[in-house]
Amino acid sequence: FSKYSNINFKINHFEELAIEEQLNIIIQTDVFIGMHGAGLTHVLFMKSNRILIELTTSVGSGREHFELMASINNVNYRRCLIIDGSSTTAEKIFDCIIEKISQICPLMTVSIHSQPIVTTFFPVVGNFSNSNITT
Question: Which residue numbers delimit the Glycosyltransferase 61 catalytic domain (predicted)?
């Protein structure tokens, strides 16, 4: 992620946290980014008008349940498709995330000196001014 060196990343491993700690993080999150899986059910505890970005390796029927869960709380939902095996996969994922956030929040800017606002289930998290992002 040297291309994005101005973004301060923070990693949270929810599997190592008590459920109360996980929910405290999610409640404060403005943008939640994570791989397709049960962990994305945390979207049910997000505040309205926040963002969920689901990272998935396939497109197909039966993969819309997190979109439905997001709609329950009026959370904006976006999906990024990941193609495994590419040497540029990490960069493409990050570019997709930035694109999806920009679509929802066109005036959002990346800030070098913001407090960490991204939480992830995998080793990718970032800082965006005036927002909390959980991945």
Answer: 3-51
Model pLDDT for residues 49-89, shown as the tens digit of each residue: 888 888 888 766 566 889 999 999 899 898 887 776 665 66
What is the rounded CA–CA span in Å between residue 82 and residue 24?
Answer: 29
The contacts of residue 57 (CB under 8 Å, 6+ apart) are 36, 81, 82, 83, 84
Report the C-alpha gap between 61 and 86 in whole angstroms.
24
CATH class of residue range 2-134? alpha beta
Would you mind telling me the total number of residues written for the chain in this entry? 135
Q: How does DSSP classify residue 116?
A: P
34 DSSP β-pair partners: 54
Output DSSP code: residue 48.
T
Is residue 50 within 8 Å of residue 27, measured between CB atoms? no
Name the residue with tokens 């029927």: 61
